[in-house]
From TrEMBL:
UniProt name for this protein: Transposase Tc1-like domain-containing protein
Superkingdom of origin organism: Eukaryota
Species: Staurois parvus
Lineage start: Eukaryota, Metazoa, Chordata, Craniata, Vertebrata
Length: 107
């Protein structure tokens, strides 16, 4: 972002896109894109990407970890049902497996 702010700063000083590109050693298309984004949105901040948000909240992850530590012989299906009764999360067994794998719990 430091480059983007320098890019905008140079533009406000009436420098051309070619001069800014040469000064900052970045492509002209990048300079042009940053200036266009700044003009349209008023900022050069990165917006959140599209896609479905995570189903598991931080509370759900803590409950999942607690459930697995308490009884490690449970199946993914029974863990999903336990999470549904404990904190009201409607998650699938695949999500449970994926989250456990991400936490480093295998098998």
């Amino acid at each position: 972002m430091q480059t983007a702010s320098a890019n905008i700063g140079e533009r406000l000083c009436n420098k051309s896109i070619r001069d800014i590109s040469w000064l900052l050693n970045i492509p002209r298309s990048t300079v042009s894109g940053v200036i266009t984004k700044w003009k349209q949105l008023g900022t050069t901040a990165i917006e959140p990407r599209s896609g479905k948000p995570y189903k598991m909240t931080e509370l759900g992850q803590r409950m999942l970890k607690h459930t697995v530590r308490r009884s490690c012989q449970l199946s993914a299906e029974s863990i999903a049902k336990a999470l549904q009764t404990l904190c009201g999360l409607q998650i699938s067994t695949t999500t449970v497996r994926r989250e456990l794998y991400g936490m480093g719990v295998h098998g």
